[in-house]
Amino acid sequence: MTCLIVDDSAAFRTAVCGLLERAGILVVAATGDVDEAVAGYRREHPDVVLVDIDLGEHSGFDVVDALQDLDADAGGRIIMVSTHDPDDFADMIAESPVRGFIPKFALSAERITAMLGTDSGAGSGTGVH
User: Where are residues bearing 4-aspartylphosphate located in the sequence (predicted)?
Assistant: First the structure.
């Protein structure tokens, strides 16, 4: 499985790269802004995109919109992450095309694969995990 990480914190990107790569997920790009996220998606077409909801001057939903403009099926590959309470963004996540939400403190390869349904070939897995 390949992954693109979009988060404005370089420290978080580094930590998650290590966490995921130790679990066998190849991080093909890690960036902090919309334009680099689009370029990385276009270049790598990753299996999953982890997008921080709060990107400083931009929103993670800006990244979602840009990726959807590039690839209508991108939403099924996107998992939103944040340190904020999931209830703060539940409506926005539910209305967006993203696969779901995982709190940053609970992020793991197992949760990602479970949400994508790749661990057992199961269905959608949409929601908050």
Answer: 52
- Per DSSP bridges, beta strands 54-55 and 58-59 are antiparallel
Give this prediction's pTM. Answer: 0.89
3-class state of residue 107 by DSSP: coil
Nearest to 12 by CA among 103, 126, 94: 103
Among residues 19, 30, 21, 9, the alpha carbon closest in space to that of 108 is found at: 19
Tell me, what DSSP letter sits at residue 99?
-
Going by C-alpha positions, the residue among 30, 41, 29 that lies closest to residue 66 is: 41
Tokens linked to 48: 């999953």
Per residue in 83-110, pLDDT (tens digit) is: 988 788 889 999 999 999 999 999 999 9
For 22, the domain range is: 2-128
Q: Is 46 exposed, middle or buried (0-12, 13-18, 19+ CB in 10 A)?
A: buried
Total of domains in the chain: 1
